[in-house]
Amino acid sequence: MEEQIALFIASMIRLAMPLMLASTGELVSERAGVLNLSLEGMMLLGAFFASYGTYVTGSPVMGILIGVLLVLPVALLQAFLSVTLRANQLVVGIGFNLIALGVTTLSYREIFGPLSRVSLPGFDPVHVPWLSDIPFIGTALFSQNILMYVGLVIIVAIWFTLTRTSIGLAIRAMGENPRSADQAGLSVFKYRYGAVLFTGAMAGLAGGFLSVGDIHTFTENMTNGAGYLALAAVIFGNWSVWKTVGACLLFGAATSLQFQLPGWGIDVPTAWLLMLPYILALVAVAGLVGRVEQPVALSIPYRRN
User: CB–CB of 154/18 below 8 Å?
Assistant: First the structure.
């Protein structure tokens, strides 16, 4: 039983990591006042570009870097439309998601073939000395691939930056009172552009984790709503880094149960297990997890007088 629980915890963390990366990146953007509903599309593009980069170069590290870099122009266009042109951020996001699905599906079929399941080089598990030998939790927590540990370091850095530095204070000011920040000499446009670009980089990394770091292949629409779950995690976490991470772990646990419960001999209809993460997301978006306090200027374009 202990081994089964350890496998469940390891699976939960592995499945939650792409959500953690995408949602903490989105958290920075929303704290700056820009809603990136295109997170799903950015993750999908990151997954495709990372897999294609790995396929061409034979290096998963290069593949991940290519995936992140090629999502940045999409994020730049998102920032231009949302911040400079002040377009409706919901419409822009939905449009990007549809375009990303079409582009990746067509490109995948042209490059790999419609039924291809090409196996890509990936990352081997890294066993942390001594810690990986701890009974019960050692394998679950300290025998993951290197991207897992890199992701955790990035998340800690995001928390520290947002809560302990002047840059974090400025980012939060952009989402709460951009006019006062502007009057104080801070460039609202520069900070919002930077936040959107950072979100794109994190979404690209999350997509690369899915395709190269986890299953070592690419499939059509492989994100399958993960970007929307990441958006819901930000709401669930009430725009707090660690609460958002906790929400991602909850979604990861709900997804992991789809694979673990049958092995435990628990007979639950598959449809219910597939629905569980999205039911939890719906509960979060509906505000049933407590009072929701979003940034005051979220999704509101800024106009200088």
Answer: no
Distance in angstroms between the alpha carbons of the first and the last residue of the chain = 64
Please, is 218 exposed, middle or buried when counting C-beta atoms within 10 Å of its C-beta (0-12, 13-18, 19+)?
A: buried
| E strand map for 139-226 | 143-145
Q: Name residue, tokens 């009072």.
A: 291
CA gap 66, 197 in Å, rounded: 15
Distance separating alpha carbons of residues 234 and 279, to the nearest angstrom:
15
Residues 66/225, Cβ–Cβ less than 8 Å:
no
In tens, the pLDDT along 198-227 reads: 999 999 999 999 999 998 999 999 999 999
% of the chain exceeding 70 in pLDDT = 93
Please give the Cα distance from 9 to 179 (Å, whole number).
45
Cα–Cα distance, 108 to 56 (Å, whole number): 14
| C-alpha dihedral (305, 170, 176, 164), degrees to nearest 10 | -170
CA distance 102 to 97: 9
Main-chain dihedrals φ then ψ at residue 127, nearest 5 degrees:
-90, 110
Helix (H, G, I), strand (E, B) or coil at 117: coil
Q: Please, which pLDDT band fits residue 176 given cuts at 50, 70 and 90?
A: very high
Domain ranges, ordered by start, for the chain? 2-224
Strands (E), 51-116: none
The pTM of this model reads 0.93
Query: Residue 283: its pLDDT value, please?
Result: 77
For the stretch 98-118, pLDDT in tens is 999 999 999 999 998 876 778
pLDDT at 266: 73
Q: Which of 258, 260, 253 is nearest to 233 (CA)?
A: 253
Distance from C-alpha of 202 to C-alpha of 26, rounded to nearest angstrom: 8
